[in-house]
Write a structure and sequence with these properties.
single chain, 72 residues, alpha+beta, 3-stranded antiparallel beta sheet, 2 helices, 28% strand
Length: 72
């Protein structure tokens, strides 16, 4: 993991097309802004993990069997 120090209104660039800017710092909270192309999804980690879990669940044998039955 790369750890960087940034102050308010400072930014960093990822992969030439994603910009992360520190917008506000209040106590132990940091508000960040992310500018990325529309085709690049940006999620909070807890939302991303929930999506991954739902995708795994959707791929269960039971659900694949139900899908196969629909396609018949």
């Amino acid at each position: 993991m790369l750890a960087l120090s940034r102050k308010k209104n400072e930014a960093l660039i990822i992969n030439n097309n994603i910009e992360v800017t520190i917008l506000e710092i209040k106590g132990d909270q940091v508000k960040i802004g992310i500018s990325a192309p529309k085709e690049i999804p940006v999620y909070r980690k807890e939302v991303y993990l929930q999506i991954q879990e739902e995708n795994k669940e959707a791929m269960t044998t039971q659900n694949l069997t139900a899908l196969a039955d629909l396609l018949k």
